[in-house]
TrEMBL record:
Residues 120-317 form the ATP-grasp domain. It comes from Limnobacter litoralis. The gene is accA. It holds the Pfam family Biotin_carb_C. SMART domains: Biotin_carb_C. Coiled coil: none annotated. This is 3-methylcrotonyl-CoA carboxylase subunit alpha. The keyword Endoplasmic reticulum does not apply. The lineage of its organism: Bacteria, Pseudomonadati, Pseudomonadota, Betaproteobacteria, Burkholderiales.
Length: 688
């Protein structure tokens, strides 16, 4: 076994690999960009080397710099992680030429399976079932359009070097083919430096089922059963589970044996994932093979009890697989939820900025399933802590919540419970949205298809239910009271009975505040309230709504502890007979409400601030995040309709097309193709 390992990745990926390597007695070397100097993986590895500027192309994708770092630190092996260079044949070749062990398959396997077209040609010879499509070398628009028309719609355009849900477009009719092709090629070139695409017939409402395989250098190949990754948004996996719901023993054996056959067809070595689409009849078709460990590998670890990173390291060192196929058994059920810094109420746009408060479970220290089948196991693979920032340069995933239970129902209950306990304050996240998904009847039932999230989003409303609004109004009043106390006292909290702010017990005044659901400022909540405190009890009385139409409320809350102000975060814990224990967290003008079975995010309309909504039709379209302009579709003097594409922004490795918020006349377009822009700047200005 080698004694020093360089981990050519960042964040939770690097931390995950480091945890196992150090447990095996291997010295670890972290690499990082200038943007990641304070990152946790840099602190935890034994050594760390700065690769360069924040842009991935100048740091984590810089093959020469990584190889030099490995040689300079005495590393004998390089683990690419998953993402970045993990499926880059040139990187594997460069490591081999430098005398370094590449923890993964050889250059040939990466090249063949890394190209969707070559991979399909390879496995087709092995008799593996394929989805009909076009995988040819002729990439002219005319040929691709002709092949698409011949195949029929709907179909999918896929980058042959793709991964992570990027470089994929769905086309439903011929008229939209060319625009989708150009967008797909552009994104593929930016993400993978290769614009080559393939076409594939779209299987309507399929399930996405993948199989984990491992192969050593001695001819042994095994599978560790399957995962269901059908909960996807924009072709990116959101929640994964193992095993796949509803598969018979015969189906499980057939898909596992086929995955092993795929690995053997390319003389595979190391960890790999073979991905299939399964139709309603249960028939499955090869889609692609990812020549690396997957983001979702923890669910397989949880149901088999094996540390898959340790297998990778042992295989790379020339050791045989530690078990035979007969030794691998399924126990219980596991889910993984991917936690992203993104705004579900604004098209899931990535969010950046400092995380003022992060709270979640500690990661598991071992991979064995619990000895008691009545227990549940909870694990967090992440790289976030309070005070760290979400960078605009990399993928916005901040961590993964993994749970295990003896049955699917027990595991699902644990997932829902843990999602309610997570806290991410300071930037928008998808945590509450993930809880909504996990409680959706179709998801809870199991056996859902890849269209589940699209259907859920089409039916979703952001409006707070009427029966919740009165309780939330009382919580808003309680939160505003605590905020006022802290602001007047500077730091710490003293007896509010001493304050002269309209909240003293003898005062009859009602304070008026306006709140709205975050991201929905067009619907505001006027809240008039008065708080009276006696010891640990706070009585909140008031009314929700405009005068003459208001609904009154009167709630009593017990405060088990004083409100706590820590840095930028004010935390209040309150208990009421109707709502149970509630946690309120203030950060700037946002009030986070965490209840026993739901959460909410409310914006306080601070009278000291003047707000202009981004995208206001009277002004123009502003940049929702930092990024690079990749398309300009409007010019001064154009008359545009609501919903018309105006300008494209690339950020966090994804393309985002910004649309006209209303009918308008374009006054100016200040930026050109290729320019970097900051968050909030005007990208398109309208005539008044």
């Amino acid at each position: 076994m080698f004694d020093t390992l360089l981990i050519a990745n960042r964040g939770e990926i690097a931390r995950r690999i480091n945890r196992t390597a150090q447990a095996m007695g291997i010295r670890t070397v972290a690499v990082y960009s200038e943007a990641d100097a304070q990152a946790l993986h840099v602190q935890e590895c034994d050594l760390a080397v700065c690769l360069g500027a924040p842009e991935a192309a100048k740091s984590y994708l810089n093959i020469d710099a990584i190889v030099k770092a490995a040689l300079a630190t005495g590393a004998q092996a390089v683990h690419p992680g998953y993402g970045f260079l993990s499926e880059n044949a040139a990187f594997a070749k460069a490591c081999a030429e430098a005398g370094l062990i590449f923890v993964g398959p050889d250059e040939h396997a990466i090249r063949v399976m890394g190209s969707k077209s070559e991979a399909k040609a390879c496995v087709q010879q092995a008799g593996v079932p394929l989805i009909p499509g076009y995988f040819g070398d002729d990439q002219s628009v005319a040929t691709l359009q002709a092949e698409a028309d011949k195949m029929g719609y709907p179909l999918m355009i896929k980058a042959v070097a793709g991964g992570g849900g990027k470089g994929i477009r769905t086309v439903h009719e011929a008229s939209g083919f060319v625009a989708a092709l150009e967008s797909c090629q552009r994104e593929a070139k930016n993400a993978f430096a290769d614009p080559t695409v393939m076409l594939e017939k779209l299987i309507v409402n399929p399930r996405h089922v993948e199989v984990q395989v491992f192969a050593d250098q001695h001819g042994n190949v095994v599978h560790l059963f399957e995962r269901d990754c059908s909960a996807q948004r924009r072709h990116q996996k959101v929640i994964e589970e193992a095993p796949a719901f509803g598969l018979t023993d015969a189906q499980r054996k057939s898909i596992g044996d086929t995955a092993v056959q795929v690995a053997r067809s390319v003389n595979y070595r190391g960890a790999g994932t073979v991905e299939f689409l399964m139709d309603a009849s249960g028939a499955f078709y090869f889609m692609e093979m990812n020549t690396r460990l997957q983001v979702e590998h923890p669910v397989t670890e949880m149901v088999t009890g094996f540390d898959l990173v340790s297998w990778q390291l042992k295989i790379a060192a020339g050791e045989p697989l530690p078990v035979q196929q007969a030794d691998i058994r399924l126990t219980g059920h596991a889910f993984e939820a991917r936690l992203y810094a993104e705004n579900p109420d604004n098209g899931f746009l990535p969010a950046i900025g400092k995380v003022a408060l992060w709270r979640g479970p500690d990661h598991a220290s071992e991979f064995a399933v619990p000895t008691s089948m009545n227990q549940v196991a909870v694990r967090m693979d992440g790289a976030m802590r309070s005070g760290l920032a979400i960078s605009p340069y990399y993928d916005p995933m901040v961590g993964k919540l993994i749970v295990w239970g003896a049955t699917r129902d027990k595991a699902l209950n644990a997932l829902q419970d843990q999602l309610l306990k997570l806290r991410c304050v300071g930037v928008r996240s998808n945590i509450a949205w993930l809880h909504t998904l996990s409680t959706h009847p179709d998801f809870a039932r199991g056996g859902y298809d890849t269209g589940l999230i699209d259907r859920m989003e089409a039916a979703r409303t952001r409006a707070v239910e009427p029966d919740q609004s009165i309780g939330l109004a009382a919580l808003c009043a309680l939160g505003r009271w605590a905020k006022g106390v802290c602001e007047q006292q500077g730091v710490g909290v003293t007896d509010p009975l001493l304050l002269r702010d309209g909240f003293a017990s003898a005062s009859p005044l009602l304070r008026t505040d306006v709140f709205s659901e975050a991201g929905k400022s067009e619907s505001s909540w006027p809240v008039r309230s008065h708080c009276r405190r006696q010891g640990a009890r706070v009585q909140v009385i008031g009314a929700l709504g405009p005068a003459g139409k208001a609904t009154s409320f009167d709630h009593a809350f017990e405060l088990p502890q004083e409100p706590v102000l820590t840095g930028e975060v004010l935390r209040i814990v309150a208990i009421s007979p109707e709502m149970g224990e509630i946690e309120l967290i203030w950060n700037a003008d946002l009030l986070h409400v965490f209840g026993r079975d739901h959460s909410a995010l409310l914006l306080w309309h601070n009278p000291a601030h003047i707000r202009v909504d981004q995208g206001d039709a009277g002004h123009g379209v502003n940049a929702p995040m930092p990024g690079k302009v990749f398309a300009v579709l409007a010019k001064p003097g154009d008359t545009v309709k609501k919903g018309q594409p105006l300008i494209g922004l690339e950020a966090m490795k994804m393309e985002h097309m910004l649309l006209a918020p209303a009918d308008a006349v374009v006054k100016a377009v200040p930026f050109e193709l290729g320019q970097q822009v900051n968050e909030g700047v005007a990208l398109v200005l309208f005539e008044e």
